[in-house]
Amino acid sequence: MAAYEYSSDYSPAAPVCLIYLGAGGRGATFGPVPALLDTGADFTVIPLSLLRQVGAPQIGQGRARSIWQATHSVSVFAVSLRVEALQMQALRVLADEDGEEIILGRQILNRLRLFLDGPAGLLEIDE
Questions:
Q1: Nearest to 92 by CA among 49, 55, 58
Q2: What confidence tens digit (pLDDT) does each residue in 44-80 have?
Q3: Among 1, 24, 50, 105, fewest CB within 10 Å belongs to which?
Q4: Structural domain count of the chain
Q5: How many CA atoms, within 13 angstroms, populate the side-chain half-sphere of residue 112?
Q6: Per-residue model confidence as pLDDT tens digits over 2-34
Q7: How large is the greatest C-alpha to C-alpha distance in the chain, in angstroms?
Q8: pTM for the full model?
């Protein structure tokens, strides 16, 4: 089991873990990089600059709705992503042209056994 303290870079403190990235069907070897866990996000969002750095291929365009219900055109990329022992290949993620943080959405989080202990400020990921 891996344990992470909540990040105080957010107010209030939030659960963050370390992940590895790679392009499309190749192994996830770039990292570790921090990623914010967001149980309210449908999909994972990764900064476009980071997607370009790992050589992830763009596989299409899509539409995403923000928490304010506004829709935006987004680029969709294929990445390999590893969270602890879970390795995922050719995973579809959304590119964020302006942001600087990785947001792990439910299409990844639903594959993990997570324990969020808010009072203790602790995230545990069961391998």
A1: 58
A2: 999 999 999 999 999 999 888 877 788 889 999 999 9
A3: 1
A4: 1
A5: 28
A6: 999 999 999 999 999 999 999 977 788 899 999
A7: 41
A8: 0.91
Going across the sheet that includes 122-126, the strands are: 2-5, 122-126, 113-117
- Return the CATH number at 11: 2.40.70.10
**CA–CA separation, 118 vs 13, rounded Å?**
9
The span from the CA of 56 to the CA of 102, in Å, is 15
Quote the domain boundaries for residue 25. Answer: 2-126
DSSP three-state, residue 39: coil
Give the burial string for 16-54 (b: 16+ CB within 10 Å, else e).
bbebbbbbbeeebebbeeebbbbeebebbbbbbebbeeb
Residues 66 and 105: their CA atoms lie apart, in Å, by 13
Question: d(Cα 126, Cα 111) in Å, to the nearest integer?
Answer: 11
